[in-house]
Input
Amino acid sequence: MESGERGQCQTAYEVCVSSTPEGLAGEVADLWSSGLVQSAQSTQVSYAGTPLRSRQRGYWKVRLHDQSGTPGPWSESACFEMGLLRGTDWRAQWIAPADYSMKEVPPAPLLRRAFQLPAGYKKARAYVCGLGYYEFHVNGRRIGDEVLMPAFSRYDRTSYYQTWDVTPALQAGENVLGITLGNGWYNCFTEEVWDYKQAPWRAQPKLRLQLEVELANGRTQRIVSDISWQAGTGPIVFDGLRNGETYDSRREQPGWSAPGFDASTWKKTRIVPSPGGTLRSQQFTPIRVTGSIRPVSVREVKPGVWVFDLGQNIAGWSRVTAHGPAGTTITLRHAEKLDAEGDIDPRNINWFIKSGQCQTDQFILKGEGDEVFQPRFTYHGFQYVQMTGFPGTPTLDSLTGITVHTDFKTQGEFECSHPLLNTIQRAARWSTLGNYHGIPTDCPHREKNGWTGDAHLSAEQVLLNFNPDTAYRKWLRDFHDVQRESGQLPGIIPTGGWGYNWGSGPAWDSALILIPWYLYLYRGDRAVLAENYAAMTRYIAYMTSMASGDTVDFGLGDWCPPVGEASDHKCPIRVTDTAYYYVDVSRVAIIAGLLGKKADAARYRKLAVKIRKAFQKHFLDRGTGMVTGNTQTSMACALYQDLVDPADQPNVLAALVSEVEASHRHIDCGILGTKYLLHILTDLGRADLAYAIATQTDFPSWGHWFEQGATTLWENWNGHASRNHHMFSDISAWFYRGLAGIRPDPGEPGFKNVIIQPAPVPGLDWVKAWHQSPYGRIESRWTQEAGTFRLEVTIPPNSHGEIHLPTSSVASVCIDDRSPSGIPGVEPAGPDSLGRPVFKVPSGHYRFSCAVRRSC
Output
């Protein structure tokens, strides 16, 4: 189907899945032939064929039928392969060096296994889990481009393995498997405030590996981790996730993972206990090196102390190149601020670390030509790097910043005529990427923790900008692993036990309900609702057990307001907590209905009504429109979370506008109110006021950060804490939803119905945005000039659109310079709640114009 051609839609589909490529030749396959399915569904179609076995391959193809009933061509074939589905499939054991002791932090172990392989093998798969992190080599060749693997989890409940196709790396005759292990989260030995050192899973690094080679005669040769493996040590003499890494290149063992190496002095391995729990296949977006940054400057701030400036706050590490005598030690310390003398100032990020260095790497030269170092089992958050011990005078080529994060692909872009908004958008993207390393973190330096509140507050912009779907689903499984029988959740996930009785609460815990909901809303993913439904209902029960008079009051509240400490917000916690209690129950009522759980749906709807009435009784003054606390957050919360009856909305909106004007059109919210404010002002016809807030440049504002040199979003408005946080990033979602107007429809989720509801505001000349939906690329581009608003829209095939035009003059509306009445498939459907005309359109590309209405 062509994306520009109008009215393209699917009426039926056929899917074939075969166990062999040859089996796809016809229209009937041995694993699954769907037959002709009369349906417009073109996403989230689940496999419904013969049950699949461990290691089984499936080859599949699909074809669609369009509105004329004509079948399109079969797609090119694709394939998938199953992992090890049963515990009994594993013959490998967990192993570690025989001389491990938990009383010390030993060098990163090297594990190797040599074996013989006959000629004529067909294929080979290696199933590998190395905790906490690992690198995998076969015959001296590194396998894969992933780093910091496997992903962090609660290891005593779930650990992840990867499947590698190592067929090209093997050879007839002698072969060698090599593994380097790092401590990672599994052996987080550093003293810090979150008590990971006391985590119930904590142990020295260990390995489980199973290589299966299909031989020419049809038999399988297995090489598994057991006591036949050998253990040695190499150049990584220290690695701590929070501390850094020390690499002594004099201790390198060239060829250790290749045939012909003399390992006669290497030590034995031993069988060690399993980490516990389930070993799962890692089927989500991995962490990779994604780019490099050349410093913009380097200068000597005191004798022998050099400071590099990357010009960008990043997550990752430094790669250093040096030439010098053996034993020379180069030390790199990473920070995101400078002191008055121009040296690094790490005090805003190192104060939770109680033992060892923070974000510090060391490289010891072996004295043989140019040497290059970069860490393998840690990562940092930084813009500035202090270098000491460098032999000679470093140049800009001596150090490179390496960006490292979960390798999300771009799913959307936004740009407009206001440079500040473009700067905010870029910074939001940098902060998002820098804060995803297998889990959504709060910051990449000080904590690296999976704070639930930060994650759900930013999730909509993440889904509009990137493709986090598989990563979110993994993280939601982490919720199951840490949720208590009572339904209680911690504030950080995964956790080693910290955060159940501080740092959680409804405003944070709602990630369990809201992120699945957003995946349903933006991607049409109903399965994720079913996967998390039981955990959701347990959490609803927990909130209800904590309620008094159908209101709740526990947790952090509107964290990080402009003035005072992080907890000095003026909006009472009970207001925002009760609002999330209502939202969670309301969403679960809808989800129950979608899943066919009618009794649950009715019960939760009834409870939601009670909570809403309690909110209005305790917090809403209908006469003044004020909400308890009398703050921007208070009123915005009540409106955004649908806790105000239509008759009372004008009064509450007026009270909110009054508070914004009293703050001279500046934001006066913490992270919760900031999520609500711009959206609800826009939805209720005051996009001009939201725009004024977004474009301020003095304190407090996003613009004030960039006036001070920010390149990522900060943790608080005054900049005293972390300078790479994503919890204030939902403004990016407002760019898409509010200004460009690209919105999903809860009634037809996944952009089956694309709502385009742009908001032209005085001072903004043009906006352009696109988003890659499950159905294809959505585009919204508008300009306004001399009282005329022009909008170009692309609605992808097999979806349809609902276009809201910012005009009070229906007669001025043209589509492709013609009257809408003469265009096939276009139907008037307005006005909307703000009196704007609405037109329903089939898929395709359209050009609208109308007389602009300033109050939009």
About this structure: The mean pLDDT is 96. The first strand starts at residue 10 and ends at 18. The two ends are 35 Å apart (CA to CA). Residues 533 and 591 are 8 Å apart (CA to CA).
